[in-house]
Amino acid sequence: MINVQKIRKTNHSIVSLGTHPGILQSMLDFDFLCGKKEPDLVAIIATGRKYVRLFWGGNERLVPVYQSIDLMPGHLKNKVTLFLNLTSGRRTLSSTADALLKLPHLLGGAIFAENVPERHSLELYHQKRKDVFIICPATVGLMISGHLKLGAIGGTQADQLIDSHLFESGNVAVFSSSGGMTNELIQIVTRLHKRISFSLSFGGDRFPILSPVEAFLAAENDANTNQIVYFGELGGYDEYDLIDLIQKKRITKKIIAYIGGTISEMFETPPQFGHAKAMAERGEETAQAKTKALQGVGVFATNSFTEFIELVKEIPSVDRSIELDHEEKMQIIRSRTSALFMNSISRDVGGSVEIVGDELLSAASKRSYGHMVGSMLLGRQLRSSDTAEFVDLILKLLVDHGPYVSGAVNTMIAARAGKDLVSSLASGLLTIGPRFGGAINQAASHWFEGVSEKIAPHDYVEQIARGGNRISGIGHRKYRIDAPDPRVGKILQFSKGLTKHEHVDFACAIERITTAKKGNLILNVDGAIAAVLLDLLSEKEKISRSKLKELVDIEFFNALFVLARSVGFTAHYLDQRRLDEGLFRLSPKEVGYSK
């Protein structure tokens, strides 16, 4: 059973199963025009991009997209109260069943798709939880004036929402199987200076999961509603169920009903009208029979649309002096344009630069360099001083490794050739790859994979060896197990303050296996950085496994090397320009020849 008063009192978080930009944008516009501080839509379940751009007022927002509900962060799953299913009819059952199973605080949802297989609708009806309502199939959704817009109901343009006065509380509930007719009725009622308490369309398929009777009972139990406007059709027995409830005094509020389809009685065989069940196969299913039966229990029912309008006119009008002025917000909506780029790192605010939410001058005064760099690379403020301190250490440790490595050599050669700073620096940076500087990210991939898939360290070593590959983050030309790299010890100290250090534990277990084979196959600086940073991000920054995987995929871990070593390369460039030794050339003796 749908409880309108409970829905009205709840601050909702909505997840969309599938995407339809027009419908979703109309929901955000409704929320913005209602004066909400944040949109109700919090996530989209779909394939493709990681985000969908939608406007919140005049600014674009990135709504996160997850490939499945399983991949949603736990706090979001616990937060969701409503779903809107925008997937195709053939996927309706599986996607809705998944939402019912995995969203623990769900109150209900609506399904937009038409032509859902009848077998699927019936199965979904029996699967749904008793405390969760589902409006479907083929519904434009549910609207509660000034509070909630779930679906295309009321229109998909901001002007339509304004014209329908959907932000002012009212006393009239509006129902229909037809989505288009529901929106039309909203327009009719509000143009006659009445206001809507709530509205929904049951859906036009043969087996609506939320029956018309349930909607009437919801209106009966809603203190804000004292009038019901209903557009019915020939076919089916829903109106007779309603009559039974009226006779039992379970529904007492005034109902104005129009039953369409009297033209069907002029045909020799009953024709099929627009919706699946809009066909009268028996006498009681005809529009006229239903109308007379409803009239018999006191419903203001008619087969004349003109008379129907007159009946609606008789509903007491609201005080028009309470109409809200949305012109300022509409000006914002009308003038908005889509940005060429979306950015979450920095912006200009009144001439002042803002870095990840911090004013630059203020951040430079109160934040460490490690905090600023870590926040910018992560795309949000670091939560832990431990993470900031670790980033600061890594930037120092990686700043240079002598003039012998390929990146520094390339930078110096370019400098001696007379190239400018940027060209020389680029020459050095372009050498960074799998064999030089790219090992931190590859090591992070190893440790993340081993921990995520719960692979035993011995099995993981064998797995890599069978593939003919090396484990990045393991091995050093100079240091051995009996002569360890002091930098690694310094790095690993950061894991001691953690409650869990599963990536460090995995990396150290790998080291014990590899050093048993050869003394210099130790955990090196790259491997240590990757392991500690994974654990810090997981525990101190509360980053989920799926987000950690994303950081590995986008080479987040290599970014620290690139940034730090850029300083070293720049220093070598300046050094070569100061020394001014001229163009570098190799002698024939320094280049061997192979036939």
TrEMBL record:
Signal peptide: none annotated. It is found in: Cytoplasm. One of its GO terms (cellular component) is cytosol. Residues 176-299 form the ATP-citrate synthase/succinyl-CoA ligase C-terminal domain. GO terms for biological process: acetyl-CoA biosynthetic process; fatty acid biosynthetic process; tricarboxylic acid cycle. It comes from the Bacteria. One of its GO terms (molecular function) is ATP citrate synthase activity. Pfam families: Citrate_synt (PF00285), Ligase_CoA (PF00549). Keywords: Cytoplasm, Lipid biosynthesis, Lipid metabolism. Pathway: Carbohydrate metabolism; tricarboxylic acid cycle. This is ATP-citrate synthase/succinyl-CoA ligase C-terminal domain-containing protein. It comes from Candidatus Roizmanbacteria bacterium CG_4_10_14_0_2_um_filter_39_13.
